[in-house]
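chain below, 155 aa
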Amino acid sequence: MEVKINREIRAYTESMFFGLSLRQFFFSICACGVAVALYFIIRPYFGMETVSWMCIVSVAPFAAMGFISYHGMTAEQFVWAWIKSEFLMPKRLIFQPVNIYYEALKGVIENKRLPRNLPRGKRRSFGADLFSRLRGTAQSAVCDDVKEEMKRHGH
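prediction:
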């Protein structure tokens, strides 16, 4: 004997009528009622094809409200959340990148700039050595390393 269990327990819905939940059944009955009423109301004024398309379009919101769920929200909860986010409380989100590494070592980097009177070749090796030390060292130790490096290069 095999018993089916949903993998996600929150996805469980109890079927009441014809394999539908109470909500789905209610909105299905509403959709059928709207379609039948609309058919008898507008049949004398339009052709059969136009009436059938109007019935389909008028039933779609009821079907959506009964059967659609998005991120655990029902259709009307989703529509209300969308209206609030787009019209009632819109926010303009602006991405502003922050270089955390630079912010942490801003004082050291700005106070201990690369000396300008070094020859070109020394300047590159001095900078590469300085930044390789900056990467893995605490700020206080970095200050000492920078001072040693400057003394080594004659400054």
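The radius of gyration is 35 Å. The chain has two domains: 9-88, 100-152.
thats it, cya
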